[in-house]
Amino acid sequence: MTDTEDTHMKETAGYLARRDLFTSSVETERETVHEMLGKITLLPSPQIHENEEHHKRMNEDNLMHAPEFVIKPRSHTVWEKQCVRLHCTISGWPEPRVVWYKNNVSIDPLSSPGKYKVESSYNVHSLEINRYITCHNPVLVLMPSVVWYGSAVGWCSEYGVTFETHIVEKFGVSFGREGETMSLGCSVIIYPTLHRYQPEIQWYRDDKLLVPSKWAQMHWSGDRATLTLTHLNKEDEGLYTLRVTTKSSYETHSAYVFVRDADAEIHGAPGAPLDVHCQDVNKDYIIVTWKQPAVDGGSPILGYFVDRCEVGTTHWIQCNDTPVKFARFPVTGLVEGRSYVFRVRAINKAGMSYPSRVSEPAAAMDPADLARKVLATVAKIITENICVSTETEAVVPGKPLDLAVIEATKNYVVLSWKPPSEKGHEGVMYYVEKVSDCVAGTDSWQRVNTDIPVKSPRFALFDLAEGKSYSFRVRCCNSAGVGEPSDATEATTVGDKLNIPSAPGRVVPTRNTDTSVVVSWEASKDAKELIGYYIETSLAGKNEWEPCNNKPIKGTRFICHGLTTDESYVFKVRAVNAAGLSECSQESEAIEVKAAIASPAPPYSITVLESVRDSMVLGWKQPTFIGGADITGYFVDYREVVAGVPGKWHEANIHSITERAYRVSDLKENMNYQFQVRAANMAGVGVPSLPSEVFRCEEWTIAVPGPPHDLQALEVRKNSLVLLWKPPVYQGRSGVNGYYIDIKEADAPIEAWRGVNEKSCTKTYMKVQDLKEGETYVFRVRAQNQAGVGKPSEPTEPIPAETKPGSKDIRVDVDGDGVISLIFECSELTSDSKFVWSKNYEELTDSARLTVETKGSQSRATFNSPSEEDLGIYSCLVTHTNGASSSYTLTEEGLKELLKISHDHKFPIIPLKSELAVELLEKGRVRFWLQAEKMSANGKVEYVFNDNLISQGEKYKMNFDKNTGVVEMFMESLGKDDEGTFTFQLQDGKATNQSSLVLIGDVFTKLQKESEFQRKEWFRKQGNALWEKSPAFPNRVPFPCLYTAAIMRLDSNSRTRVLCFVHQISKKDAGVYEVVVKDDRGSDTSTLNLTDQANSSTPLKIQSTEEGIRLYTFVSYYNDELHVTWHHNDAAIAFTERIKSGVVGEQLWLQISEPTDKDKGKYAIEFFDGKGGLRRTVELAGQVTNNLHSVLFVPDRARVAGGLPDVVTIQEGKALNLTCNISGDPVPEVTWLKNEREMFSDDHYILKFESGKFASFTITQVNTADSGKYSILVKNKYGTESGDFTVSVFIPDEQLPAPRVPVSSV
Questions:
Q1: 383: which DSSP letter?
Q2: Could you tell me if 883 and 978 are in contact, meaning their C-beta atoms sit under 8 angstroms apart?
Q3: CB 1017: neighbour CB atoms within 10 A?
Q4: Which residues pair with 663 in a beta bridge?
Q5: pLDDT at 790 > cutoff 60
Q6: What is the number of other CB atoms lying within 10 angstroms of the CB of residue 263?
Q7: Which positions fall inside the Ig-like domain (predicted)?
């Protein structure tokens, strides 16, 4: 007996038992009706008989529904040894038992194992006969017999139309969460298509037919069946089956749906209970049952609360004050005749769960009352034909019968009894009495329901002391009085009679698919009223358990889905009944999730590649399913075909062959043969292929070559693929010298074949391009020799032109050591996948040129010594995937570029932003500096002068900023010994670089003089400042005449200054003044010539400034008696706002702002002191470049000459353009910054530097993200300068923001 039949028998038996319990009251009620209607006279009426027959057929519980054939089996005519399968569909309740007969003799499948196979599913019954053999009696009569209260016999018949049903686009295993909506659907193809005919569409969950409700909605569109679960609950978990039934046959598809608990409102709260049902319904109480959840939230469930709600209202009332642990509870306090729904909530120490799905409505009425309603219909029909006799007087009822305790827990006890036989014609009520065992033997019975009389023959008692024993009895009463008590029950101890089941036995997991595992276990021993089992899983070693199912299953085998491929899992199982959940079983052994290995499917498309007088070469295609393991070989069978009658199969090869081509020898010339091929892997040898066509063994004499074979498509992308093939076995009269590839759409007719290549291809591979994305193609190949083009190969399977998700291409990598590698990654790996590298599509076996290393999902092919020998196409194929492959073509130009990159990586160079340069700082200090692109924390610098290392000390001060890459060295002054070559040597890991600066000859002399001049000027300016800030000086020494000398000691920088004061200077003070300074270290002198003011002036010089050009000269001393005149081209200069002159200390200057071409020419300054004069001249023409701001003056550092505002406020969506002038020689480098980060020109920011002097900044369309601080940084070998401005963007609807003054960071 199958599990399904056993289940239905148990359900049927339980149903009949409940029916007997239900009808016992009905029979009693019928007796009362007969007593009341003893003198009723019924007039015969055919209407009554028809009404009874109608109700028999339309009864809701399907009782009295005799079996009948919905679809009868069809007649079949079959070949000998051919398998045949017969079907029929039968309805009826309880489910009919089906017996198949052959020639009026019942068929026993066990008597002939393997010959007969009988199946029953969803009222569809089938008989399969394997390899039917004609016996002495060639007539086979099969008859299925159906047995129930009646029987139906169906004989095979043939329908006029045979329908073929195919279910496509099937739904798979699905996962949902409580509260979500889920849809399951399949497309159904029925041939032939009849518009007026509609198939029967049925949905099942766990073999139970689903009917439309608010929880489940069905839809049939004519070609697609859909089931929508509107609000998922754990009750919806299970195996869903779609059954499509036609007049000819039926098709089914099944998949499991898992429903997880919704996230708890309180962290750690348990999951909601499920399957809330009303088990025993009476007018006084209703027993509510449920199933415990699989998730307890991490702490044990303390109990459950039951809530009720009257139908038509939304007010929920809690039925129990304290939580109950038993998964059954009698709810009392109901109003007779009203309907209620119920729900249950679980609680643990963390909090309360969500409520369960509400139960179906239940009316608080006795079954007898329901029976009366059934009889009311008959009463209405015969009312006008009824005559009732006079009533008899009421009598005291007798004692109730068969009192028993039908259920006992520590929370309640349920009693059941039968009404007394003597109770009169009026209704009766019952009083329940109890007595404790401790007072047994006395007349101390206590009435339990004093205030609430019981009207039904069942009652639930509460508030009994746990552990005590009680006896019970019942009395009947009516208007005539109270009857005698019933016989007392045996002593019943208050407590749970149902124990928690024991833990299940050994748990054994086995492989199933890449994402599922089959778990089986030993059933719990001595488990009573077992509801089912919960399975839990965890990653091996993690101890983090999650439920596999949220609805208990009754069997001892379950498929756990939703697991991660190649991960290892352990499992454990718990049993559950109404008393609670058992302890967990022992953990299973860890199992790695991967597909189970099976024998491969049969090969197909057997063709002949060559034929000679006594042998033939066969070719075939690889099976579509290889069984999860590599195919280890093939076996070929052949048989002779004589006059169309095939003979016996013979083995062509004893040992397996690995190629998909084989020569079958020892054949007979001009004989016809058929062939079949079997594939083998580590799981075994698969079933043979279908027999091939009939081939004749004869010598081929054609001149053209035979067909190529073993076509294979790799690197399939949306617009290209690579087609590979093997050369034909039969070459023809000359060797093959080329191939032609043909292509057509998969659904196009045979006339649509067209060529891909106009010129023949000499290789056995070709890349086919210009495919249309989404189109499906087939390909074939033809070989050519000198005689012509031969027969085409067998076409490939249809190949869609699409790039599969996750597809990657081979990439080239050159590491830090300069090693060149090809890398391919694949995310679809299985445990059996391998990376296969090829060159020119021939597998690489020699590791002399290439070394392959695979780690995880990445494979690297490294060139040992790259050279021109390595040019070619490199490809990589990943086995046991959905065709993951890619290729890379290494060309001569590509190799040269890679070798250059490799050399740069082997011998890396630190890039420099600027070469070594020198500039003068304040006080005449000399700064040598350069800037590298990027330096790490390990970078270091060596400073070399004339091939000698120099280091930090009193003369040299070094600084290295690794963040900016700036390397600096400072010298206080330049001496004669400092003439030579300065070099900075940089090293950062393996990367190195150096930069040198040669300072010799005139270049050094000029720089040295400028440094000395700047140094003296600084000291001179420091002295003037000190004089103004020093009100008195100590240690004055009086001199003769009008001179005063003073010595000032400056403690702040340990310097001493000697001052000589002339109280009133005049011409007689003219002369040469000298000061001598001596101490223990030596002496020094300094002179001042006051003999001639004019002759003491320095040559006229030119300097570029921010405003324009400045001409200046220095005199030894200056007073008001010296008259100065400036001339331009021998004409006195008229001073304006643009041209000004002035004196600062001993410097006399002429400032020309915004010079133009008119300002070119000869400038002169004339001095006159009353008795003589002097003229100094300078030629501006020739020293001024195209930009008069840039005067040839060495050094000329980079400068931002102006043009940028401080703040720019602009409306969003507008365009911003700013331009500024840049000066410096050499031409500076220009860098733009935003918020201290370097900017680069793009479509949004357009940065230009034109003619070496105009820098422009443009924002094409301003948005709020463009607000911020911007800077332009100009730099050359003599210095760096920056200009800053702020951009503020406002939205038109907003108030214009106030301009902000930018604050530069320190």
A1: G
A2: no
A3: 17
A4: 617
A5: yes
A6: 11
A7: 67-135, 138-258, 792-891, 1195-1288
> Could you give the CA distance from residue 1247 to residue 1241 in angstroms, rounded to a whole number?
5
How far CA 374 is from CA of 66, 94, 1253, in Å, comes to 21, 22, 108
Single-letter amino acid code for the residue at 703: A
Q: What is the pTM of this model?
A: 0.49
1012's enclosing H/E stretch is helix 1001-1029
From 267, 261, 292, 295, select the one nearest 180 (Cα to Cα): 261
- Report the distance separating Cα 225 and Cα 188, nearest Å: 7
In what order do the strands lie in the sheet containing 285-291? 274-281, 285-291, 328-332
DSSP 354: P
Residue 559 near residue 511, CB atoms below 8 Å: no
Supply the DSSP string of 1176-1221, one letter for each residue.
Answer: EEEE-TTTB-SSTT-B--SSEEEEEEE---SEEEEETT--EEEEEE
Confirm if 297 and 271 have CB atoms less than 8 A apart.
yes
Give the integer Cα–Cα distance in Å for 723 and 729.
19
pLDDT digits (tens, 9 = 90+) for 237-292: 999 999 998 877 889 999 999 999 998 888 899 999 999 999 888 887 888 999 99
Least confident of 10-24, 285-299, 534-548: 10-24
3 state SS of 115:
coil
Alpha-carbon span 855 to 840, nearest angstrom: 24
What does the alpha-carbon distance between residue 991 and residue 938 come to, in Å, rounded to a whole number? Answer: 11
Classified as helix, coil or strand, 459 is strand
In this structure, the number of other CB atoms found within 10 A of the CB of residue 881 comes to 17
User: Does the CA dihedral 111-112-116-121 come out positive or negative?
Assistant: positive
In the block, which residue shows the tokens 């150096």? Answer: 994
Instruction: Encode pLDDT of 200-244 as tens digits.
Output: 899 999 989 999 998 899 999 888 999 999 999 999 999 999 999
- Distances in whole angstroms, Cα of residue 1069 to Cα of each of 1043, 1093, 1096: 10, 12, 15
Please give the Cα distance from 1205 to 1202 (Å, whole number): 9
List the one residue out of 340, 300, 341 whose CA is nearest residue 323.
300
Measured between alpha carbons, how far is residue 436 from residues 250, 448, 698, 798, 1197 in Å? 63, 12, 103, 84, 114
Nearest CA among 165, 1060, 332 for reference residue 342: 332
Task: Give residue-wise pLDDT tens across range 644-687.
Answer: 899 999 999 989 999 999 999 999 999 999 999 999 988 889 99
Bridge partners (DSSP) of residue 873 are 889
Task: Give the tens place of pLDDT for each residue, 1009-1054.
Answer: 888 888 887 777 665 433 333 333 333 334 343 444 444 444 444 4
Q: Which two tokens stand for residue 851?
A: 């070394």
Question: What is the residue whose two structure tokens read 């006084």?
Answer: 284
- pLDDT bin (cut points 50, 70, 90) of residue 795 is very high
Residue 534 · residue 294 · CB < 8 Å = yes
Q: Which ranges constitute the DSSP H helices of 867-970?
A: 892-906
865-885: pLDDT as tens digits: 899 999 999 999 998 888 899
Question: Per residue, what are the HEC states of 515-532?
Answer: CCEEEEECCCCCCCCEEE
- For residue 380, the model assigns a pLDDT of 54
Cα 46–chain centre separation: 71
Q: Report the distance separating Cα 770 and Cα 1153, nearest Å.
A: 68
Strands 1279-1290 vs 1207-1211: parallel, antiparallel or unpaired: parallel
Beta strands 174-177 and 250-260 are parallel
Report residue 1058's pLDDT band, with 50, 70 and 90 as the boundaries: low
Q: 1079 pLDDT band (50/70/90 cuts)?
A: low
Alpha carbons 814 and 843: distance in angstroms, whole number = 24
DSSP bridge pairs for 252: 243
Q: What CA–CA distance (Å, rounded) separates 781 from 306?
A: 74
424, 461, 475, 477 from 420: Cα distances, Å: 10, 21, 10, 10
